[in-house]
Amino acid sequence: MSKNKDQKRKAQLATRAKNESFRFQVEYMRKQKGIDIMGMEQDLTTELDAICQNGLSDALLDLAKIVEGIRKELGFDQEADKCSLNGSLVPFILGITSTQPDSSTYVSGIFTAQQPLQVTIAYDNEIRNQAVNWMKANGYEISSYLGQPLLKLKNVRIVIRRVVRSQ
Known about the structure:
The chain has 5 helices and 4 strands, in the order H-H-H-H-E-H-E-E-E. It starts with a helix and ends with a strand. Strands 1-4-3-2 form a 4-stranded mixed beta sheet. Helix content is 47%, strand content 16%. The protein is an alpha+beta fold.
């Protein structure tokens, strides 16, 4: 009995430490980038609570690394207006989205949706496959969903769509 309680307690402490670390990283990045969220502090706290409660912190950090890695190594940015996380503070702070939400564009409740969380990102038609190959080369598991590449992270499924621009 005691051994089982110790294991549960260790798991709880590890989860708490991971969540505190995630909150610190978000706040640190916000201050480092100089992002002003005047009047939206409660929204940020609510988002952080939902992310930590649903176990999405690791996946969001991984997605931020992926978006940044593709931007740095391949020079490709995702199609900003096609990301399903637009209107949310934490993805903006982490660099996943590029448009800062304000009180009129803020979308609440994104991280309280069904699990696993369904996220959509998009790249231009010409470069999407290169971005997917970069993800594969860096050890991320890619499968297919309705003909679209699907990145599987813990508690999050990310569909990588293709955007065809008219010329």
